[in-house]
Amino acid sequence: MGEQYRQRIEEKISELGADNLRVFINDDGVTTHYRLEDTFRHAGVRFALSREEANLVFEGNHPPSYRTGQVVGFFRETQLMFVGAL
Q1: For residues 48 and 35, what is the distance between their CA atoms, to the nearest angstrom?
Q2: First vs last Cα of the chain: how many Å apart?
Q3: How far apart are CA 75 and CA 50, in angstroms?
Q4: What global pTM score does this model have?
């Protein structure tokens, strides 16, 4: 994963509070070479087994889809964006 993306993810996790986060990564939207799970794990978050259990969803290259109480990370062209609120 590009250094700027990793840094942006870590900043967002810090802003939201790693102890509060349950992360779900949409495997269909994320290329495995990004090593995204390592970035999240290193930051100290917990992983959710489903999108419904998560409060931070990472869509990758898919359009954002979220529920009330969720933040969603996704790529728009070359930018990493976040929408929603906990």
Answers
A1: 17
A2: 25
A3: 20
A4: 0.87
pLDDT in tens, the chain (86 residues): 578 888 999 999 999 999 999 999 987 777 665 678 888 888 899 999 999 999 999 998 889 988 999 999 999 988 999 999 99
Question: Whole-angstrom Cα distance, residue 72 to residue 83?
Answer: 5
Q: What is the DSSP string of 2-66?
A: -HHHHHHHHHHHHHH-GGG-EEEE-TTTS-GGG-HHHHHHHHT-EE-SSTTT-SEEEEETSPP--
